[in-house]
Every structure is written in structure tokens, then in C-alpha cells.
Amino acid sequence: MIRGTVSEVACDKVELSGTSTIDSRGLAGGDAVADQGHALSAGDISLSEATVIHGDATTGPDGELTLTGTSYVTGTVSTGDSFECHPIVIF
Fold first, then answer.
1. Which residues contact 1 (CB under 8 A, 6 or more apart)?
2. How many domains does the chain have?
3. What pLDDT is stored for residue 73 in this prediction?
4. Distances, alpha carbon 50 to alpha carbons 8, 9, 16, 40, 83, in Å
5. Is 90 among the domain residues?
6. What pTM was computed for the model?
């Protein structure tokens, strides 16, 4: 169960590298708690190098979380239910 704001949603997988950070700073007029920037994926979540998720990481039912380097998740790591995902195309 994701609580708060979902900052990253992927229909397939989430792959982040370098010094990427997901958090919730600035999402609610700047007063949001920083550790509620959650990542939700229908598949896998892969973090490499020095990537951080300040919140929960939820993979799809058959998904896996992969952490390499100094990457970490501050919240709960779990496997979620499948969900219907509709990609948004931005031009």
C-alpha cells in the first residue's frame, strides 16, 4: 500500500542511475514530508550508483528491486498487485 504521494509510476520498469533522487519535497506547496516520494512499477525497479528513493518502492507482482552501488530506499520495499497502466504521451 502506497501512502502519500507517488512521485514515479512506470508501466514497465523504473531504472534510475547516477545521483538521481525521488522525494516529495515541494509537492504540496513546499510543506510535504521529504520521505513520501514513492516509486510504483508494474515490473522491476532498478537503482544503480548513488540513487535514492526517499519513500516506498513497490514493484509489480513478479517484479524485483535491484540495488547496486550505494543506492537505497528509505521506506518500505514491497511487491504490489498488478494495476492497469495507461502511458501518458507528452509532445
1. none
2. 1
3. 95
4. 17, 20, 9, 19, 29
5. no
6. 0.78
